[in-house]
Amino acid sequence: MNTLLRLFLEKHMQLGQLTVISARGEELRLGDGSGPPITVRFNTTRAERAVASNPALKLGECFMDGEIDMVQGSIYDLIMLGYANGGRGLMPAVWMKAFERMRILTRRLHQINTRIQARGNVQRHYDLSADLYRLFLDPDMQYSCAYYPRPDIPLAQAQLLKKRHIAAKLQLDPGMEVLDIGCGWGGMGLYLAQVAGARVDGVTLSDEQLVVAQRRARTEGLAIDFRLKDYREIGRDYDRIVSVGMFEHVGINHYDGFFRKAASMLRPDGVMLLHTIGRVDPPGATNPFLRRYIFPGGYTPALSEIMQAIEKSGLVVTDIEVLRLHYAETLRAWRLAFMARRDQAKALYDEAFCRMWEFYLAGCEAAFREGGMVVWQIQLAHRVDAVPVTRDHLSSAEAQLAEAEARRGLPGPAWPEDWP
Q1: Contact 416, 150 (CB under 8 A)
Q2: What is the CATH number of domain 3-105?
Q3: Is 354 annotated in the active site?
Q4: CA distance 116 to 44
Q5: How far is CA 50 from CA 12, 45, 65, 92, in A?
Q6: Which of 300, 183, 197 is nearest to 242 (CA)?
Q7: Which of 11, 42, 257, 326 has the greatest CB tally within 10 Å of its CB?
Q8: pLDDT tier at 298 (50, 70, 90 boundaries)?
Q9: Burial class (CB in 10 A: 0-12, 13-18, 19+), 405
Q10: What's the CATH number of domain 114-418, 3.20.20.480, 3.40.50.150, 1.10.1200.30, 3.40.50.1220?
């Protein structure tokens, strides 16, 4: 076994039951014997060297390429064992600390999201076949954190609760004009139009998502204007602005511009709701595996980075809610659904893609359970009196929305305690 890999594992893997089989067949047993047994096999000596040098990137790459196999347990189990042993995931080895600092210092270079680059980055992920996403998302194709009052409710119901929760915070009246920045496959916009009676415009940079969103609007007979457009190109104002799961792709170089643009589009008495992934730690850098293979140009911000940009825009923060384990439960539902339909995904792409996607979903779920990742819902306005001064209004607003959902025949029952 590679000497550096052995040293790294012996230092960091003190808890659990981990067996590592080298490319030459040697077995290294680690941990204190607690928990379920996990066994990983290295199929090449190259993989041993690679993981020893940069585990944050190379573990995922070698798993994706079939140079590492899980013999006992899953890749999710292995990543969670890394967290259990005191790390925020698979942290760089001691000899990689200088490289890690450099990665943080140069992070802005990887987030220069001009309009052309932004569209290219979006296309790499969101222009994958809609048939892939249908394998693991809910029927409404919500590709963002659901809202879980308790962890055992169905994914579709949790996603409906997310839309209801956001709509309640937007304080909508029928006929209000709403902009959905990063509208995806149209689910949020369709909900606001159907249930709240809003007039919705939605923008996306994904051709695949646009086709689906427009088709859904036509099928429902809704006059929603879904367009292929960068938010920076919009030239009008709105009563309400909502953005769910898009801000992670803006890039820290463009935060000031994003909020200035939002402020210019939001009417004087308007309300905006931003739903975004964030980190509880100080500013850092994007995980190298995610940056290279999943979300090029993406970044998970610290709250301090967002607030600085909001302060410069002139907008007022009227509320912040922290959704902590909600995304972990969402990702778990996605991961289990994907693994149950893995053969169908392989028919669409190949084995390497399936391994990459499994590692992505497993790593992200683990990060939201143990790695300091959360979701923020940030409510913004021009005026401090644009919304009620307490959250007491949300329960009545959500009750009214639930009644409207029932009239529309949306998935129910309306309340979590009624679900099996």
Answers
A1: yes
A2: 3.30.1050
A3: no
A4: 39
A5: 17, 9, 12, 12
A6: 183
A7: 42
A8: confident
A9: buried
A10: 3.40.50.150
